[in-house]
Structure formats: C-alpha cells, structure tokens
Specification:
Blueprint lengths: L7 H10 L1 H33 L6 E6 L15 H8 L5 E2 L2 E2 L1 E13 L2 E10 L3 H4 L4 E5 L6 E5 L2 H5 L11 E4 L2 E10 L8 E5 H8 L6 E5 L6 H10 L5 E5 H11 L1 H31 L2 H9 L4 H31 L3 E4 L2 E4 L4 H28 L2 H6 L2
Parallel strand pairs: 5-10, 7-9
Antiparallel strand pairs: 1-11, 1-12, 2-3, 4-5, 4-8, 4-11, 6-9, 7-10, 8-9, 13-14
C-alpha cells in the first residue's frame, strides 16, 4: 500500500455522528432498492410462470389459423377420440391414454360483490394426467355443479380470499357453481384458472365443440406423427404445437414488457444515484474542515477518498440487506393480475443478486463525485472554513 488508510472504524463512526442525515439517506436508499426488487420480482415471476407452464412431452391440438388465441379455438368434439385411435406413441397408464379434451374460454365471473373477467377450463379426469403439475391442495375434484379454482384466481378476479373459500358460490354464464377445491400447478399459468366438468361447461355455454385437445407423448413418441395427423385430416382443420413452443411464443410477445420493466429499473436506479449524490454532497460540504484537518495531520487525499467510498458502500449494503429482507417477507409470492391470468412475484436468488448489486452500485457511484470534490479541495481553503 502506497498510502496510509484511515481506520475502518472512522467510516462506521461517521455514519452515527449525524443520525438524522444517515437515517434519511438510509430510508431513501432502501426505498429505491425495494422498488428495484419489485420490478425484478415482476420480471422473474412472469418468466417463471410461462416457463413452467409448458411440458416438453405435451402438445396441444387446436383450430387451424387461430394463432396463439386458444380461447377462440373451436374443434369438433370427436377429435379427442380420433387422436388416440390414429396417432401412435401417446403416453398411457392402466389403459388410459394421456388425452385431455378441454373447453377453454374467458368469461365474466361473479362472486359476491366482485365481478370480473376470469379464465374457465372445462376438463375431464385425464386432465390430471396431462397437466402433471396440477395438485389438489384443498377440497376435492369438482362434481356436478361444482368448480375447482387455482390458488391465484382471487388475484385474477380481484376478489378477497374469503369470497373464494370452499363451499362459496361463483356465477359463470348466469349459472351458480359451488367451489369444491383449490389446486396449485407449480407456479404455472393454470393457477389463475377455474376448472369445472367439461360436459357441464358445454351445457352452460350451449356448445358441443372443444377448444383444444392436450396430449402427452410417450418417451419414444414422435411429435411428427401428431403433426402429420393434423395435416392429413383436412376436414377437421387442425394444427398442433408443443406446449413449450406455445408458451415460448407468449414469452416473445411479452418481450417488450420485460424491456420496459428493465427500463424502469434503470430509471429508478438513476433516481437513486442522484438522491445519493445530493446526500453525499451535503455530507462532504458539512465536513470540509474535518477533511482538511485529516490532510494536515498526514492522511493522503486518496485515503480520504477511500474512507468516503467506504461510508457510501456501508450504507448501501445495509439498505440492500434491509430491502432484501422486506422483499423476501412481504413481496415474494404476492399475486399480480395480468392479461394472461395472474402470477406470483418471485424474489429468487437472481432477483436478490440484481437488487443487492444495484444497491451497492448506488453506494459506489453516489460516493465518487463527492470524493472528487474532496480530492480537489485545497487544504488551506478547507482549514479556513473552520
């Protein structure tokens, strides 16, 4: 080392010499870093929801020309019987092939005083085979006149959890449905859906068709066989896509939103840097005589610069830690309503790393300009300020 550093305790002691200024700066930094955690948690939650929604062995068959709008798809009811009879390589268990005919739509759902658009999926028992992540957390599979709700349906409908308790009633398409159970799906998009029996939803909607048929291929199954079936049966007007490709395409659609969210992170961080600069400038100006005295007794300007950066980093580290704890306790898992349904904010290791890194960078870059000011300050001028 080419110069003598100030004691480490000096930077720590300075933080407690001006408790009001330190507290205000700490609160400001914590708020900025917390906002970064919220935005990053939003991005991570959205990405995970789409990533875990697709199974690489599962494919969906839907109407030709529907693009990605499965809720507008309409295919003949007999499709669910023709596929297992015509396509080899479908997964099978105890004689039951993994084929799930489904009617999927967005419609108005009313519960108590809450009225909002919800996602409803009419299914049969094999849906639990194809949607392997779905687990009934509470209650039971819906019987006649009943529905089973995902654990994020309350967020999607903007209703309270009490309004969607088991035994309460939902109104869908003018018909009352009793809630029989609550299911989870590993954080996937299914958790914002309402599931009921396929035949009853068809009766309520006065429809005899399906939206999609979801199938799971065996380990040696070939997706090409299913694609060939769809292309050969021109009378059915079908197309197929792997579930991972479908949700991957949705991720591409939400790409601009992710970039916008990162822009928000950048803007929030920039605001935090300016707030830190303002505070650190005030701190340096108020300590000009003290800094000049340190130079007089033999400490190099570089040692003072290092000490000021230490103060900034210590405060930023404390604010990052506080914001991370708050985010993990109160923000992680919070449900957010979105166009595709709802998903949970995710404060994972990546989010913590990004949030804390932004916090430390705020402390570093917020300290550098004031330290340059201290470096350029002539010793004589500093002593005259006493």
């Amino acid at each position: 080392m080419f110069f003598r550093l100030l004691p480490w305790e000096y930077a720590i002691r300075n933080l407690f010499r001006r408790p009001l200024r330190t507290s205000l700066t700490f609160a400001g930094l914590t708020t900025v870093i917390l906002l970064v955690f919220v935005v990053v948690g939003f991005i991570r939650g959205l990405e995970r929801s789409l990533a875990v929604s697709g199974d690489p062995q599962t494919a969906v068959v839907f109407s030709l020309g529907m693009g990605r709008n499965l809720e507008y798809s309409s295919i003949p009811m007999r499709t669910s019987d023709l596929i297992p009879a015509s396509v080899a390589g479908l997964r099978e268990q105890a004689g039951q092939k993994y084929v799930s005919p489904e009617l999927y739509l967005g419609t108005r759902v009313t519960t108590g005083r809450f009225d909002s658009m919800g996602l409803v999926r009419g299914v049969t028992r094999p849906a639990l085979l194809v949607r392997s992540r779905v687990e009934i957390e509470d209650g039971e599979w819906p019987k006649s006149g009943e529905v089973m709700i995902g654990r994020l349906v309350a967020a999607k409908l903007e209703a309270g959890d009490d309004a969607l308790s088991i035994g309460n009633t939902l109104t869908i398409e003018g018909r009352d449905w009793r809630i029989s159970g609550v299911f989870s799906a590993g954080g996937s998009a299914f958790e914002s859906e309402i599931w009921c029996r396929l035949d009853e939803l068809q009766q309520a909607m006065k429809r005899q068709d399906l939206s999609i048929v979801a199938v799971t291929l065996a380990a040696d199954g070939d997706f090409t066989d299913l694609d060939l079936f769809c292309k050969q049966r021109l009378d059915l007007e079908l197309q197929t896509m792997k579930e991972t490709e479908y949700y991957g395409s949705l991720q591409e659609d939400y790409g601009p939103i992710r970039w916008l969210a990162w822009l928000v992170v950048l803007l929030v961080s920039g605001a935090g840097v300016f707030a830190g600069l303002n505070t650190m400038y005030g701190s340096v100006v108020g300590r000009i005589p003290e800094l000049a005295t340190l130079q007089t007794i033999g400490f190099a300007r570089r040692a003072i610069v290092v000490s000021l950066i230490q103060e900034g980093l210590l405060m930023a580290a404390g604010a990052s830690l506080m914001a991370a704890i708050f985010a993990l306790v109160f923000i992680n898992g919070a449900a957010v309503r979105f166009t595709m349904g709802a998903f949970a904010l995710r404060i994972d290791s990546t989010a913590v790393l990004i949030g804390c890194s932004v916090g430390l960078l705020l402390g570093l870059f917020g300290s550098i300009p004031p330290t340059i000011r201290a470096l350029r300050m002539p010793v004589v001028d500093g002593l005259k300020a006493v």
